[in-house]
Design brief:
With about 270 residues, the chain is of the alpha/beta class. Helix content is about 45%, strand content about 15%. GO terms for molecular function: serine O-acetyltransferase activity.
Length: about 270
């Protein structure tokens, strides 16, 4: 057992840590033993655990848990980047969310993480031309988690969505790597034409609670959007914007706003 665990720690340190934390959780709270066992300890890989968790949440009277799980297993088997992104999302959540104290938590309890993983499977289905099934995943993700992400949207790795209520990401939106956003963020379109109409978010961007970014505009890398802002124009890299409509109020204040999670607008504008 020790030898197997040592090999797992080298091959997949994120999953190894989740497994160790799961065992500790069962010892600390035996009443959660069944849930933790079926969600984590029963599975040999993080891919299988993700498939189980997504299927458990999205299943309903129209599509069974078994069918959704088979779809997820197919997706993870065909595209290893899906699980790679999930590992990055877990690490990002642990690093940036002060309420996250274990790698275990996003997988079991955080709807932002779970919704993003359901989106990733839906996006894979979309790229395979299975659009109706992708729409089903979008519908159930919205119904279960209160997060509406179009399966055609493109989202990078290392995404942290804190609280995650009422997130909307439109069809032609692009979100870069290592982006952090809080609840009630909208990446929306303008007009009703079927065209490229949603925002393009650069790497390392921090989007505050309730911010609305509308239209086919670029948000430069490592920038900050203050809570409650309505962004209608392009945002240069490494700057902070605030207001309705949003205007530049200073520099970003640090090299990695999405990691620092500093949302304070200071008097000097940083």
């Amino acid at each position: 057992m020790a030898e197997t665990r040592a090999k797992l720690a080298k091959v997949d340190p994120v999953w190894d840590r989740i497994m160790r934390e799961a065992q500790d959780a069962v010892e600390a709270e035996p009443l959660l033993g069944g849930m933790v066992h079926y969600s984590i300890l029963h599975h040999p890989t993080i891919e299988r655990a993700l498939s189980y968790r997504i299927s458990l949440k999205l299943a309903n009277g129209e599509m069974s848990e078994q069918i959704i799980r088979e779809i997820c297993d197919e997706a993870y088997g065909a595209d290893p980047e899906l699980a790679s992104a999930a590992r990055a999302d877990i690490t990002a959540t642990y690093d940036r969310d002060p309420a996250c104290h274990r790698y275990l938590q996003p997988l079991l309890f955080f709807k932002g993480f779970q919704a993003i993983q359901a989106y990733r499977v839906a996006h894979w289905l979309w790229t395979q031309g299975r659009t109706d099934l992708a729409y089903f995943f979008q519908m159930r993700t919205s119904e279960m988690f209160g997060i509406d992400i179009h399966p055609a949207a493109r989202i990078g790795k290392g995404i942290m969505i804190d609280h995650a209520h009422a997130i909307v990401i439109g069809e032609t939106a692009v979100v870069g790597n290592n982006v952090s956003m809080l609840h009630s963020v909208t990446l929306g379109g303008t007009g009703k034409e079927d065209e490229d109409r949603h925002p393009k978010i650069g790497d390392g961007v921090l989007i505050g609670a309730g911010a609305k970014v509308l239209g086919n505009i670029k948000i430069g890398h490592c920038s900050r959007i203050a809570a409650g802002s309505v962004v209608l124009k392009e945002v240069p890299p490494c700057t902070t914007v605030a207001g309705v409509p949003a205007k530049i109020v200073g520099e970003a204040g640090c090299d990695q706003p999405s990691v620092e999670m500093d949302q304070i607008l200071r008097s000097e504008g940083l």
